[in-house]
Amino acid sequence: xxxxxxxxxxxxxxxxxxxxxxxxxxxxxxxxxxxxxxxxxxxxxxxxxxxxxxxxxxxxxxxxxxxxxxxxxxxxxxxxxxxxxxxxxxxxxxxxxxxxxxxxxxxxxxxxxxxxxxxxxxxxxxxxxxxxxxxxxxxxxxxxxxxxxxxxxxxxxxxxxxxxxxxxxxxxxxxxxxxxxxxxxxxxxxxxxxxxxxxxxxxxxxxxxxxxxxxxxxxxxxxxxxx
Length: 227
Known about the structure:
Elements: E1 8-12, H1 16-28, E2 32-36, H2 39-49, E3 53-57, H3 65-75, E4 80-85, H4 90-98, E5 103-106, H5 111-122, H6 127-130, E6 132-135, E7 138-141, E8 146-149, E9 152-154, H7 158-168, H8 177-185, H9 194-214, E10 215-218, E11 222-225
Parallel strand pairs: 1-2, 1-3, 3-4, 4-5
Antiparallel strand pairs: 6-7, 7-8, 8-9, 10-11
Helix pairs in contact: 7-8, 7-9
């Protein structure tokens, strides 16, 4: 079984479509996610759940994100705070950073950039929070791009490495070819989904007998990392 606890992320945005988009994407990336539509809902989540990361929209109804962000920073200086907003004025960005935000992204933004920034900042919390993935005999050091199976280093290409990490972030979950294409090759990939089957085969070959046992085919559905 995997021994890595997912990082908890709270998404605070008054637009339901954005909350759903970010929540779904972050879950696919291996984070545990909850969302809130305003400052009151966010505070309720903070009291009961204690997220390690807050992605916070500035333009909230009622109490704005700057006010909430100030309270979050005062309550916990170690929590990662990223402002997300349509405002692109330099003064707004400076204000957010002066309030103690770790980062500031302007809409529209690339989802992959948000994930990359979250993981970069999380490294302050130690390698177990941001840089390590593990499942059974498999261990991956994300920062060093290093894969170890049963104590032996396994050399993978960049695409093989990304595919393996996708499985490691969803142990036991069946992932369809379409899902793997979106998460590993990107939403704008227009090639044939048979490429997934090809790369799963490459992974199994490089991981050997243990890899073939861990990367399971669920016929007609997809693939699963399991015991």
